């Protein structure tokens, strides 16, 4: 009925990424988060429910902005931004990746978090990733799936990957190359959550 702490942090990080890209003038670009834990559709359905509940709680915490500083969600988001994202962006030392103060992120958060949808992408789901029909405004999506996601489906604006499926199969491992590559204007915002074993197997 709940998610591990690392997954909650990944979801919070994705919310921050969406806000940061909006603050940088990339609010109409697509944002995607990948969650790939199992090839079993029933597991994906259960995961959808708990991830949706997490996002709803985060959204409500941002929405109720009266005395926001006292809310746990506010404190969590601010801590992750200042301890992780600020330091990472500063380390890039790239004029195309401006360091954004927390106030700019908080201002962009309400509209950014409202835009995020959770979808399951598998052979049984009716969910689709309508990137092409939403080019004008862009979509922000947390995509939960298995084989479809591990075998080449393009996720536009992929920034956060939570990939824990155990696999020594090289066709699956090679698809992990989507974690890397060119990310103009948001390379510093990309985050990967996975296991030491998968990192070693991929290498």
Query: What is the strand tally?
Result: 5
What is the structural class? alpha/beta
Distance between the termini: 34 Å
Mean pLDDT: 86
Folded structure, characterized:
The structure is a single chain. The chain is of the alpha/beta class and 203 residues long. The protein has seven helices and five strands. The protein has helices spanning 5-23, 41-63, 72-92, 102-115, 147-150, 170-175, 196-202; strands spanning 31-36, 116-121, 140-145, 158-163, 191-193. A five-stranded parallel sheet has the order 2-3-1-4-5.
How is the secondary structure organized here?
Blueprint: H1 5-23, E1 31-36, H2 41-63, H3 72-92, H4 102-115, E2 116-121, E3 140-145, H5 147-150, E4 158-163, H6 170-175, E5 191-193, H7 196-202
Parallel strand pairs: 1-3, 1-4, 2-3, 4-5
Helix pairs in contact: 1-3, 1-4, 2-4
Can you give me a brief rundown of this structure?
The protein is an alpha/beta fold and 203 residues long. It contains seven helices and five strands; from the N terminus they run αβαααββαβαβα.
């Amino acid at each position: 009925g709940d998610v591990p702490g690392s997954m909650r942090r990944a979801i919070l990080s994705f919310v921050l990424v969406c806000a940061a890209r909006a603050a940088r003038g990339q609010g109409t670009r697509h944002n995607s988060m990948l969650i790939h834990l199992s090839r079993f559709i029933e597991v994906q359905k259960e995961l959808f429910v708990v991830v949706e509940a997490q996002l709803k709680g985060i959204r409500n915490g941002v929405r109720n902005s009266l005395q926001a500083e006292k809310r746990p969600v506010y404190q969590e988001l601010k801590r992750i931004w200042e301890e992780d994202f600020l330091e990472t962006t500063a380390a890039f030392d790239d004029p195309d990746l401006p360091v954004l103060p927390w106030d700019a992120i908080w201002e962009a958060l309400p509209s950014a978090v409202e835009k995020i949808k959770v979808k399951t992408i598998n052979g049984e789901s009716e969910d689709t990733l309508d990137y092409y029909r939403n080019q004008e405004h862009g979509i922000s999506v947390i995509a939960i799936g298995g084989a479809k996601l591990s075998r080449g489906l393009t996720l536009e604006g992929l920034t956060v990957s939570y990939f824990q499926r155990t696999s020594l199969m090289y066709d699956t491992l090679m698809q992990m190359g989507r974690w890397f590559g060119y990310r103009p204007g948001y390379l510093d915002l990309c985050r990967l959550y996975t296991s030491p074993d998968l990192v070693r197997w991929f290498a």
